[in-house]
Amino acid sequence: MELTGQLAVVTGAGRGIGEAIGKRLAAIGATVVLAARDVAQLERVQREITASGGASEIALLDLLSEQSVANLAQTIESRHQRCDILVNNAAVGFGGKPLHETAPAEWDQLMATNLRGPYLMIRALAPMMIAAKSGHIINISSLAGHVSLPSGAAYSASKWGLNGLTYSVAEELRPHGVRVSVIAPGSTNTHFEGSGDKKDPNKKIQPDDVARVVAMLVTQAPQSFVSEVLLRPTQKP
Predict the structure, then answer these.
(1) What single-letter DSSP state applies at residue 19?
(2) Taking the complete model, does pTM exceed 0.85, yes or no?
(3) Is 222 in contact with 31 (CB distance < 8 Å)?
(4) Which of 80, 178, 171 is closest to 129 using CA atoms?
(5) Is 29 in contact with 49 (CB distance < 8 Å)?
(6) What is the pLDDT of residues 96-122, one digit of tens each?
(7) Where in the sequence numbering do the catalytic residues fall?
(8) CA torsion 9→46→23→228, rounded to 10°?
C-alpha cells in the first residue's frame, strides 16, 4: 500500500473528521497515532482500525498543554524515529453569539486549540521531517477562514489565522522537502455545529470526504503539492 512504513499523527482523532482521516490513512498503509483527550473514543477507533487490518496507536493529548505536546513528540521520536504525516484536525467552536458577547475565556480556549495547538504540533514534529528531508503537514481549516461568519467571529478569526500560518510555514519548509497544505471544508456532517443546526445532514460534506482529500494530498508525486483545497457540498444543505 502507498503509505506502508510511514507514520501519521492525527489530532482530534476520536470522532468526526479526525476519526475518518485516521481510518483512511491506516487503510492505505500508514501506522496512525490517534491523538485526543478522550481515551475511550480513541480505543474504539483503534479497535475498528485493527478489525480492518490497519495499524494504529493511541495517544492522550491535551493541545492546551505545551508539555503534553512535547511528551507526544518525544514518544514518537523514541519509538519510531520518524513522523511522515501530521494532520492538525482538532478544533473547538463557540458559535451562535456575536463577538461582543463572547467571553475572554472562550476566546482564549478557542485560539489556544485552533491556532496555538497546530503551532505547538508543528514546532514539536517538524524537526523530524526536516531531518528526513520529507514529510507532509495538513491543517484542517474551514470555509469560515475565507468568508464572513456572523455569530462566529472568533472561530472565523482562528481559521483565518490557521490559513496564514499554513501559507507561511509551507514556504519555510519547502527547502527541506516538507509539504504543507490546508483543507477548508464547508458544512460537514459532524457534532461540531451543535444541536441547533437545521441543515440537512445528507447534503453536508461527510467526514470521509475530507479524509479522501487528505489521502490524495499525502500520496501525490513528490515534485509538487497542493497548497489549499476548498471543499464544498454539491448542494447547499
Answers:
(1) H
(2) yes
(3) no
(4) 178
(5) no
(6) 789 999 999 999 999 999 999 999 999
(7) 155
(8) -30
